[in-house]
Structure formats: structure tokens, C-alpha cells
Specification:
This protein is an all-beta fold. It has one domain: 7 Propeller (Methylamine Dehydrogenase, Chain H). It has no helices and 32 strands.
Amino acid sequence: MTIRASISRACAATRLVLLVIVAVLATQASAIEPERPGQQSFLTRAVFAEERLWVLSDAGDLSSVAEGQDWRTSEALPEKALDLCVREGRPTVITGTEESSVWTLRQRSGGAWPTAAVIQTDGDRLLSMDCSASGITLLTTRRLIDLDGEKQNAVPLSGPLSGGLIISTYGASDQFFVGLNAGEWGGGLRRIDRRSGNITVIERNSSGELCGGPLNAACDPVNGISALPWKPDCVVAAIGLVHFRPHGRIVEVCGNQVQRLYYKPYGDNRSSKRSNDGEPFSTVAFFGLTREGDTLWAVGIDGIYGIGAGGTARIIPLPRFKDAGGIAVKLRRAQFRARAHERQPTPIDQRRCAPSRSTLICMAGEMPPILRGL
């Protein structure tokens, strides 16, 4: 099992973006897989907190690697971990079992994992946990649950979230966005109204042709969602699929309006053949997305992309990696020019991993600005 991480520094004394690439065969990210003798677990989540890389497997096992170490440390939790995020700079997990009537939210403190909240399952299955500066959101098979300290608010969903595996989520003040990945059958983007629980499919087929874009639920897996820095009322989504040939783009979503923000031809595209959307038939597939100040950082199959307003992009090649406890990790700082007034604090952001053939690529979150030994 191999995990690859790359860190890009957007500017001096600001946060670092941690990008994790996991070169293993992906499995369903939102469910605990039963343990099997001699099984090899697959990673479903990775975040950076307290100067450690924390990784969660599909068997519910949590472990971490400190910078400079060449081994992983396993965490002893009372139950299996169902999901992992960063809250207030500390790793946070939600634990439970298939048979339990409650889920337990735990936040690491002093090496222990004390209980922060207890949530009734009401017979639901947990699909995803999303952390932001304003609170924690749990997405279940039937409800959207907001946690803010001791307060819990649950809204029933208008229907099931069908169409693929839940790969990415993003919480806005009044809406909750969900990215789905069904491989060659697409997945697309869903928007949930936090007040009513109503689920809307967000898409646009400008050409009207089969698999026409820029966002098509039947053909486009959505692997990352983030705020659009220069349009605060909009979000941006990363599309990526590798099936015979790579296919992907970055799209912006403002209400029900969808338009392409960025794409890049992949491989030998000297042929004049184009899709009905005007794109080459092979484009870079994207599998992770986060915001840093006025820049979007996206993980493509051939590098890390810093995308600015107007669709301008700068590309950093993926680095070489070093083994650390059975996972290959590379932490690299790349400094870019940035004006001081462009540096804005952004909440911790992490995204679920997304499958692409035998490669699993995910955006793991943000790091604090201090990382010694590099």
C-alpha cells in the first residue's frame, strides 16, 4: 500500500496545502469493510494535524506518521473510526459499529480521545463527516445533522443520495454540496438545502450530446469541492475520470449556473478532433481541490495545479516519494510570489479520496505553517 503526499507553500508564513496521492485500488469510502484474515486495508481519508499525517483505512483503523519518521503509529480507539477530519487544529473522529445505536464524536486531546458529542443513529448509516470553522456536519442515509458544541440539529433528506460513492463534500452556510463518483457512469454534484433537506442535482449539458459538459451527472465524477475565492457565493468542483483515456476539468457553480473554469489537454493532442464542448478527447483528470487565499489548488494526474481568476494556472510536477511506515510520503515546500493583502485565512479543508483505476488521489487538507526538518 502506497500513499504519496506533496506539500506546496503558497507564500511565506501562510498555511501549507497538503496533497495526498494514494497508489492503491480504491474501495467504497463511506463504509467500514469487515476484517478478513490477511486483508490489505485501503485508505479512505488523510488529514494533517498536530504535525502528523493521520490516515484512516476502510477497516476503521486510524494511524499517523510524524514528519521525519519512517514508521506509522496506530491509535487505540474504543470503537472503529467511521470518518476523520480536522477541527480547531486537532484530529477528530466519529466512531461506532454497525450494531450500535449511537455514534461518538471524539477529538484528540493530550494523546487521548475524549468524547465531544454523542449522536443517535436512528437506524441510519453514516455517509460522511465534514468539518469547518463554524461546526461539524454529518451526512447520513436519511439526515443532514449539524453539530455546534452541545447543539444538534437534524434535517430529514428529501430522498436517497444515489448515483455513486460520496467522494467529496463542502458545507456552506445554507447549503451542503456532495460530490459523487460512479466511475465510468459519472456521479455528478448534489446540493442539499440545510433548512428543508431538499436534494438538487446540479448539472449542465451545453451541447445536448451524450456526456456533454461542462457538468454531466451521467458522465462526470466530482472528486473535490471548494469555495471559489473570487466569487464568494459560488463553489468550484473538480471532475476526474481515467477510463481508457483521462477526462476532467474544473467547473464553477453559481446557484444553478454552471460553467467551465479550467481544463488542460493531456498527452498527444495534436489531432484536430474535438468533443462537442470544444475540448480535446483526452484532458487532465482532477482528483482533489482546496482553496488557499485567492488560489485554488487542484491535484491532477500529472501535477499540482494552482488556478487563479480567469482560469490561469501554474503547474508543479509531482515529486518523488519516500517510504514511511509502509506508505510513501513526500513533503515538499514550493514557494510562490504572493502579495501580502492576498493572504486570507481559510478554514481547514479536507476531501475524501477518489478512485481512478489503480490510483487513489485525494486532497488531505491544510497544514500549519511550521514544518521542521525540510
